[in-house]
Amino acid sequence: MKLSLITLTIGGFGIGMTEFVMMGILPDISHAMNVSIPVTGYLVSSYALGVVLGAPLLVGLAGNYPPKKILIGLMVMFTIFNGLSAFAPNYELLFISRLFAGLPHGAFFGVGAVVASRLADPGREARAVSVMFAGLTIANTIGVPLGTFIGHNFSWRITFVIIALIGLFAIWSIKSWLPELPAAKNKNIRKDLKLFTRLQPWLVIGITAIGTGGFFAWFSYIAPLLTEVSGFGSNAITPILVLTGLGMALGNFIGGRLADSHSPAIATCLLLLAMVGSLITVSLVSQYQIPALAMAFVTGALAFSVASPIQILMINAAKGSEMLASSLSQAGFNIGNAIGAYLGGLPIAAGLGYTSPEWVGAGLALLVF
Question: pTM of the entire structure?
Answer without folding.
Answer: 0.75
